[in-house]
Amino acid sequence: MSSSHIKEKRLSESRRNFIRKAALAGTAGAGALLAGSVLGIPAEVAAATDQLVKIDSSDTTADFLNNKLATGIGISKSVANPGGNEQLSIAATSSSLVTPASQVVWRDAIATYRKDGTSGVVTSYTGTTRDLDAIQAAINALTNGGLIFIKAGTYTIASTIAIPSNMLIEGEGVSTIISMTGNNPVFSSTNGTNWIVRNLQVQGGGNSNSNAHGFQFTDPTDCSLEDIWIYNCRNALDITAAWHLALTRITIGSFSTGNQNYVGIYTYDPAQGAGDNSAIVANGVS
After folding, report:
1. Same domain, 114 and 150
2. What pTM value is reported for the model?
3. Which of 104, 150, 112, 115 is nearest to 128 (CA)?
4. Helices 32-39, 3-25: inter-axial angle, 10-degree rounding
5. Is residue 28 domain-shared with residue 54, that is, in the same domain?
6. Which residues of 42-70 are buried (b: 16+ CB within 10 A; e: fewer)?
């Protein structure tokens, strides 16, 4: 008998065996488990509940989970039933700047968009003031503070963005550009506390315009600018009195000829403590 006849005979036997087993599995009362055992197919067994992480109830090691985890600033943990069926609760204890991605803002050629981080609802803004409308709406939605994340892009505004207390406004680095077209500060804060602006570029409304500052602050307390690029402003930083104001990795300069800032940092009212306990760290000047 030729080798081709032998292969064909073996194949025919395999087909007959499969058909015979399938028929047996399909008889009355044969379920998925029987079909799996007859046909040699692994049966799927669904878990009654999700068990991605589990400590067995027989484990009597006290504080098994608690001793494995360390918490950072503003985070607490507590243990229930440490001798078995251990439960570990983790909570935020700080009320400032602990809300992740409360609002997200981005733009394309058609519109500027705002996404609510809690509800997931996306609102689009069109028209000549769409960038400012989206950013301001994100600020207005956070009455108790939170995080506004502005994705990369150039956002053109004609009015000042006021920074509320307990707010974190964050971009995607130098590619997030807030560009002012009018004779107004790009950002301002009056008596604001505990806010942070970081990771974005600010382009002022022209260094010859008397009020076209990058940031204009009056008496900020416990506030911070981090990783900021400031160009084409009258005063890059215009500060009247400050307490615990941190300026970290701030680049004050020109991105092209004719776009220099007229003044880098201008402070007023030193008798009231302008710049008290403030820090300028790793500053870049070009």
Report:
1. yes
2. 0.62
3. 112
4. 160
5. no
6. eeeeeeeeeeeeeeeeeeeeeebeeeeee
